[in-house]
From TrEMBL:
Residues 1-75, 206-289 form the RCK C-terminal domain. InterPro entries: NAD(P)-bd_dom_sf, RCK_C, RCK_C_sf, RCK_N, Trk_Ktr_HKT_K-transport. GO terms for molecular function: monoatomic cation transmembrane transporter activity. GO terms for biological process: potassium ion transport. This is K+ transport system, NAD-binding component.
């Protein structure tokens, strides 16, 4: 059982669709267990929430189910970020440092602009300066990563970058979720308002890899089902009592992520739950159960 975070890009078939109507479970076997919507983690997500470009879905399932999910959600027309030979980094903060490390390993040409003179900074000054962007040769760059701590500066940098190079690919991180739409309107191709997620996501885009990374704020718990013996999943009220979701059931026939809410448990099964740290602790308290330790 795996959990991954998958961003929804413009052109994806799910854009504009409510989660309850997405047919993801029916078509792929994978489950949407959470979503970053407008920069806020919903765990579980509101079934009536509308999936938009730059929504990040938390999806669980077996490896083949996640692969099926990837194929099912291919954008029409399919859109991926291009692999670039020359990249500008605006801001040597968390995102900038993470991206520069990967870019350096790939042997790509990178120019970093930052207001302070640190190791790895090529141009000292404001990134939202026409002069500094020109000095970074933005006209010849294929992409720019905007990772400034101030959203106003990020928006201005995005506008300037787009005006100086209409074909450049712009990946922007903003701190305030209210700045997301503004950044898109300013010309950013990809915006994510969650710093700790955007750092690895930006790097994955530049690395030309599928964006599959461990979800950092949720926990998996594998426990014996004996507290549920004689009841169905629907009758157990696990979510109502603890805030966790059952995403898989394991018995003598193996592990399945197709969980029937009317299945009556014998108590011999094992169940896999997902939830926040707080929800997992609440489940253990409410149902007086300890996790099954993985076999050595």
């Amino acid at each position: 059982m795996e959990i991954t975070e998958i961003p929804i890009q413009p052109g994806n078939r799910l854009v504009g669709m409510r989660i309850r109507n997405s047919q993801i479970r029916e078509q792929t076997g994978a489950n949407i267990i959470g979503a970053w919507i407008d920069g806020e983690l919903q765990l579980p997500p509101d079934p009536d929430a509308v999936i938009r470009s730059n929504t990040v879905l938390l999806v669980s399932g077996a490896h083949d189910e996640l692969e099926a999910f990837g194929e099912f959600t291919q954008p029409y027309p399919y859109r991926t970020f291009r692999r670039h030979e020359r990249i500008i980094i605006a801001g040597q903060g968390e995102v900038g440092q993470a991206a520069r490390g990967v870019i350096a390993q790939e042997g790509l040409d990178v120019t970093t602009i930052d207001i302070e003179d640190h190791d790895g900074v090529d141009i000292v000054g404001d990134a939202d300066s026409d002069e500094n962007l020109q000095a970074a040769d933005i006209g010849a760059a294929g992409a720019i990563i905007v990772g400034l701590p101030d959203d106003s500066a990020s928006l201005l940098t995005t506008v300037l970058a787009r005006s100086l190079n209409s074909n450049i690919e712009i990946l922007a991180r903003v701190s305030d979720i209210n700045a997301t739409r503004k950044a898109r309107s300013a010309g950013a191709d990809y915006v994510l308002p969650v710093p700790r997620v955007s750092a690895w996501m930006v790097v994955s885009e530049l690395h030309d890899e599928d964006i599959l990374a461990p979800a950092s704020q949720i926990r998996l718990l594998r426990v014996p089902a004996d507290p549920l013996a004689g009841s169905t999943l629907a009758e157990s009220d696990i979510y109502e009592r603890a805030g966790c979701r059952v995403i898989a059931v394991e018995d003598d026939s193996g592990l399945t992520s197709t969980v029937d809410p009317q299945r009556r448990f014998t108590g011999e099964e094992r169940i896999v739950l997902v939830g926040s740290d707080e929800a997992v602790q609440q489940f253990r308290k409410q149902f007086d159960v300890s996790p099954i330790e993985p076999e050595a």
